[in-house]
Structure formats: structure tokens, C-alpha cells
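Translate structure to sequence.
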């Protein structure tokens, strides 16, 4: 790590760290008089480090963030993430890509895409950071999911089903209140 202090400005020319199999490499500055932070860098996150052994995979996140230290809701953020393979509770997705932007107390997932079971998934979302609450909405599509591949990862793997599945879903809600979630969707099976 390398730090340079000039008056109220603390310049971080290099900050590297590691926790278990995860690491970070960032640089930026902190303005002590305005309590503003400006960071750029990358984070390599081994999801099993934070979620446990049933979650496997490495995510790489490149981030630029600027805003008041005490209120992330007012930050401007650009983040691009990627992962070759993620396994979550026996489900596997590949070629994961994420684009997130945040400005003026709103966050936008302009794209979250992945490959899964011979098909593809796409999600877009929006987060609004209000003073006392946070609202969110998301729309997702799964296309061409091979059910004969998917069934190998679910408790019904000994059942006989096949075909190609598609899912279209949208949700909205606020904070972590599960009762606030509203949504709709459709699931279609072709050739099954």
C-alpha cells in the first residue's frame, strides 16, 4: 500500500489486500475537508469466501466510485463484472457479465447476462435510493433452457421430463420487506 497526504487530501496510489481467496487492488483519494471519496480499481471475489461452500466461483469487478463517505446512496458508480462459472446451491451459470451504473440516487443494472443449461439469461433492473427507503424493480428473461440438463441439478432428477423452457418475469418492491414484492411472469415449455 502507498499513501500520500497533502493537506486534507489523502492520495492512495496503491492499495492491495486479500481475504482468503478474494482480493482487491484500488487507488484513489479521500478529501477530508469535504468527506468525499474517489476510488478506481478491481475486486476479485471468491463467492465461497462470503457465502460458504455451497457457492463456488470467482467474480471480477472493475469499479469507479465517487461520493460522500457517509452516504453511498449519493455516490456515482460505474461497475463492470464478469465470471466464467458460478455455482449456487448446485445450479450453474456461465459467462456471467454485469454492467451497473449509479448516479443521482438511482442505480441501473443495464445488463446482467449469463449462459445456463444450453440457454441464456438476461436481467435489467433499477434501484431508487430515497431518504428513508429503497425501491427496486427488475425484468428478467430465460431463453432456451434445456430441461434435460436442468433436471440434473434439481431434486426431481430421477423424473422423466424434457423440452426447452423459457421464463419471463418482472418484480418490484422496497427495502428488504418481502411482503412488498409484487410481480408477474410466464413460464413456457416447448417440445416437452
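Result:
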Amino acid at each position: 500500500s502507498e499513501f500520500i497526504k497533502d493537506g486534507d487530501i489523502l492520495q492512495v496510489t496503491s492499495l492491495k489486500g486479500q481475504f482468503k481467496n478474494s482480493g482487491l487492488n484500488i487507488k484513489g483519494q479521500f478529501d477530508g475537508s469535504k468527506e468525499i471519496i474517489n476510488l478506481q480499481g478491481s475486486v476479485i471475489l471468491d463467492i465461497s469466501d462470503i457465502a460458504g461452500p455451497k457457492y463456488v466461483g470467482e467474480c471480477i469487478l472493475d469499479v469507479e466510485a465517487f461520493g460522500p463517505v457517509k452516504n453511498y446512496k449519493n455516490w456515482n458508480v460505474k461497475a463492470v463484472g464478469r465470471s466464467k462459472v458460478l455455482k449456487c446451491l448446485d445450479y450453474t451459470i456461465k459467462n456471467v457479465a454485469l454492467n451497473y451504473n449509479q448516479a443521482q440516487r438511482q442505480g441501473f443494472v443495464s445488463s446482467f447476462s449469463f449462459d445456463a443449461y444450453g440457454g441464456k439469461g438476461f436481467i435489467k433492473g433499477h434501484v431508487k435510493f430515497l431518504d428513508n427507503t429503497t425501491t427496486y424493480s427488475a425484468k428478467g428473461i430465460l431463453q432456451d433452457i434445456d430441461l434435460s440438463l436442468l433436471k440434473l441439478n434439481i431434486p426431481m432428477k430421477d423424473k422423466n421430463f424434457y423440452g426447452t423452457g423459457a421464463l419471463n418475469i418482472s418484480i418490484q418492491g422496497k427495502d428488504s420487506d418481502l411482503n412488498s414484492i409484487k410481480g408477474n411472469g410466464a413460464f413456457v415449455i416447448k417440445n416437452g
